[in-house]
Amino acid sequence: MKILIVEDDADISANLYDYLAARGHSVDAAPNGLVGLHLATSQTFDAIVLDLGLPGIDGLTLTQRLRRDAQLATPILMLTARDTLEDKLVGFDAGADDYLVKPFALREVEARLLALVKRAQGRVVNSRLRLGQLEYDPDSGTLTWCETALALPPKALQLLLAMLSQPGRLFSRAELETLVWGEEQETSDALRTQLSQLRRALTLADGRCPLVTVHGRGYKLVDPDA
Fold first, then answer.
1. Radius of gyration of the chain (CA)
2. In the structure, what pLDDT confidence band is assigned to residue 126 with cuts at 50, 70 and 90?
3. Nearest by Cα to 159 from 199, 118, 194, 131
4. pLDDT in tens, 166-187
5. What is the model's pLDDT at position 125?
6. Which of 69, 68, 60, 122 is nearest to 96 (CA)?
7. How far apart are CA 168 and CA 183, in angstroms?
8. What is the domain-level CATH number for residue 82?
9. Coil, strand, or helix at residue 216?
10. Which of 44, 62, 161, 162 fits a 20 to 30 Å CA distance from 1?
11. Of the candidates 92, 124, 156, which is a domain's last residue?
């Protein structure tokens, strides 16, 4: 997972960062709400860990701005020392997906984040995925490109569906390897092989292809006709 931590307590932020990074996740951190807002809207994250009592922009206001103004659907796990039911209801009403009261166990933070991301991805997988003339029907398992059915090897299909669930998003090599193989690989050979198969299957006679390589950064799917 790619996770953003927005927490002004340096010790808590460092503990979360070190633990999640050691567990293989890609982690970024913001010390206040303003930096958190910038990172959350300028980059793509799988989940956000957000403290309620932040300087600059508090957690509730930040959540509202991400949901209302930025139209961001990224799962948000809210952290707070406030443990009353009313506090929790206010957090959920602002747009938080889950709520964890301090002090907390780091293992529980990761477990809740995994559950949130899985739930969010499940909402995508259960619907038809479409980008221009590229379409996947999960009910029939049919993939079509320019009205032609495509049969892909399992791992190449996994890569395609991961990117098709978020068109235009740039996926790093580490993210794609973790999605398909469960962890980052020692070399990029396996990923390159699968991407080559995918590119061959998607490249049309006129050279158009929805799979784009951003050298040194990663890969994404775009509509070549847009």
1. 19
2. very low
3. 194
4. 888 888 998 888 877 877 888 8
5. 44
6. 60
7. 23
8. 3.40.50.2300
9. coil
10. 62
11. 124
Q: What amino acid is encoded at 157 in this protein?
A: L
Summarised one tens digit per residue, pLDDT across range 52-100 is: 888 888 888 999 999 888 888 889 999 888 777 777 777 788 888 888 8
Structure token digits, residue 120? 């969010």
Tokens of 60: 């509730």
DSSP 55-113: SSS-HHHHHHIIIIIS-----EEEEES--SHHHHHHHHHHT-SEEEESS--HHHHHHHH
What is the predicted pLDDT for the residue at 127? 62
Distance CA 150, CA 68 (A): 38
Domain shared by 12 and 117, yes or no: yes
Domain finish residue from 102, 124, 146: 124
Does residue 226 sit within a domain?
no
